[in-house]
Amino acid sequence: MRRRLLNLLTLPSLLLCVTALVLWARGHSAGDQFDSMAAWNDGQRERCRVWGVASMTGRLIFYRNDVESDPGRDAWWEFAGRFGLEQRGLRHDTVAPGAETSFRQDRWWNRLGFEYADWSDRPSPRVLERSRQAVAPAWAVALLAAVVPSLWARRELARLVRQSRRDSGRCPQCGYDLRASPDRCPECGSAATTPA
To answer: Which of 54, 86, 167, 195 is most buried, judging by how many CB atoms fall within 10 Å of its CB?
Structure first.
């Protein structure tokens, strides 16, 4: 079961690692943004939600922005006008005056490039905005995503080494020559297996 799970997670992790590395390298000269938007009316309020990821200055920004407005006011246009369809970044001076915010820059992880902000704002009496953004250095995302492919590569390399030892008449565990003692390895004590 663990082997199947590792095999299943390896490819997505490897793709995430490569994507983070590409965005990290590209983010120092250009910014990228991938997002998705949904707008709907629940009968009482117009709502708009945008979520996605942006890359700039070697950082990945994961965000979710929600806008609610009274019926008759299009929340999507309220969002587009307010945000200009661009990410504002995670600097505390970009939060509108009077907005309730949980943004803090005095944590130890901020020195490593990690940030989180959660704020809400009322740009007008009929509109409520809420934004959440998490920032991580792209190198950290790539490093975390590389763990599973590294475990898979280690396991596959060990399997290939054992198979090569077994095929050449050596102990699969320690590599000791088993021609003189075909039943059990005198070096490590493991049971010898016959060549495939």
So the answer is: 54
